[in-house]
Design brief:
By secondary structure, the chain is an alpha+beta fold. It has helices at 12-21, 35-38, 59-67, 76-81, 84-88, 101-105, 107-116, 154-166, 213-216, 221-226, 248-265, 309-312, 319-332, 336-339; strands at residues 3-7, 25-31, 46-50, 70-72, 124-125, 135-138, 149-151, 177-180, 185-194, 199-212, 233-241, 272-280, 286-292. Helices cover 33% and strands 24% of the residues. Helix 1 (12-21) crosses helix 13. The longest helix has 18 residues, at 248-265. Bound molecules: adenosine-5'-triphosphate. Residues 122, 136, 138, 142-145, 148, 179, 181-182, 186, 208, 210, 233, 235, 277, 279, 289-290 line the site of adenosine-5'-triphosphate (ATP).
């Protein structure tokens, strides 16, 4: 029997509940500080206790996973806590394409793949001197929006950067990435691509709630102007969104273009769940500032099934369950190598 394993954070509950519902064994790699939380959930069959998630790279942990025929489901915590080299060195089969995760972490590679997929992107600004419009300044890697800030001129950029350095949020030698700010309605488009059927499925949309940028909108302009604090984009949670139906066709096209581009640049392509993240402007034109090449935590809002999956499946289908279903089918057909790396 195949087991499903994941790290105890991000969307672990959804992934393991989905696996259990599909009749698979569930294994959680769990940090000691979170043991009490995860023991609350009876659908987790086995906990591998670790001091830090990096222990997943150790021979002992990999041996346990191997003995259980485990497939490891990668999520945001794996990317945030391990380098691309470490992820690529994992011996346990990783669901989807572990090689594409490097393209998610590296800003230059990320831009290249998004361009290849024809995704409309905000203009990057290579030098703070060239800041003419409102820009957002980001850190390298998946910083989860912490320490990001906005600026409308070089002077404002320098003031805020210096302030964040003096507060210890940014380091002096950190290379920052500047991009034009895209105003509009945020939409994080969640997909699943199956290499078994060659079908792209649109799963759902979420919005991220980020602190304390959202808190700013709740105080009057007078107080906003007096505030000296640089607001951050730290993700706190997610909420659901459904799109105007007239936007769906373009959503599928974007997803298909992304799948095709990934096939060309990073074999075996964009297998499994992924997310295209961006903003709809006043003309309903989408601009994408980011993608995630694995399950996103925004799918947690649809643990009982999403609006769009209820159109495709006559049963409750979460993203976690969809992943488990794919693994189950591939195991039965002896095609696990098609959906793992
Ligand atoms: P994560 O790894 O959590 O996805 P990240 O570090 O890769 O985060 P982004 O997703 O690129 O960072 O940006 C974080 C947040 O900043 C977004 O969720 C969005 O609210 C905002 N944001 C990023 N880029 C833009 C942009 N160009 N225009 C408007 N808002 C943006």
């Amino acid at each position: 029997m195949t087991a499903i394993a994941t790290l105890g954070s991000h969307c672990a509950l959804q992934v393991l509940k989905g696996a259990k519902d599909e009749g698979l064994k569930t294994i959680l790699v769990c940090e000691k500080k979170r043991e009490k939380l995860y023991r609350r959930f009876p659908f987790i069959d086995e906990l591998i206790m670790v001091d830090s998630f990096k222990e997943v790279l150790d021979a002992k942990c990999q041996k346990t996973l191997e003995e259980n025929n485990a497939v490891l489901i990668p999520h945001g915590t794996l990317i945030a806590q391990m380098s691309s080299e470490e992820i690529e060195s994992i011996k346990t089969p990783v669901f989807g394409n572990k090689w594409i995760l490097r393209w998610e972490s590296d800003r230059v590679m990320k831009e290249k793949l998004m361009r290849e997929a024809n995704l409309p992107m905000p203009k990057p600004v290579t030098d703070p001197k060239d800041i003419e419009k409102l820009v957002i300044v980001k850190r390298q890697g998946a910083a989860g929006g912490k320490g990001y800030f906005m600026a409308a001129s070089e002077e404002e950029y320098n003031t805020k950067r210096n302030q964040l350095i003096s507060e210890g949020v940014l380091s002096k030698d950190e290379t920052l990435y500047i991009q034009e700010y895209a105003a509009g309605v945020l939409a994080y488009l969640q997909f699943f691509y199956s290499p078994l059927t060659n079908e792209l499925e649109f799963f759902g949309v979420d919005q991220r709630h980020e602190s304390d940028i959202e808190g700013l909108g709740r105080i009057p302009a007078e107080q906003q102007l007096k505030s000296k604090k640089v607001p951050s984009f730290n993700v706190i949670g997610n909420s659901p969104l459904v799109l105007r139906e007239s936007l769906l066709d373009e959503v599928y096209t974007m997803g298909e273009n992304f799948v095709e581009a990934a096939k060309r640049v990073v074999a075996p392509g964009m297998n499994g769940p992924f997310c295209i993240e961006g903003v709809y402007d006043e003309n309903a034109k989408f601009t994408s500032f980011e993608f995630s090449a694995r399950i996103v935590a925004g799918t947690n809002i649809y643990m009982d099934g999403s609006p769009y999956y209820s159109l495709l499946f006559n049963e409750n289908m979460s993203m976690g369950k969809r992943i488990a279903r794919e693994i189950k089918i591939a195991t039965e057909k002896n095609q696990l190598d098609k959906i793992t790396t």
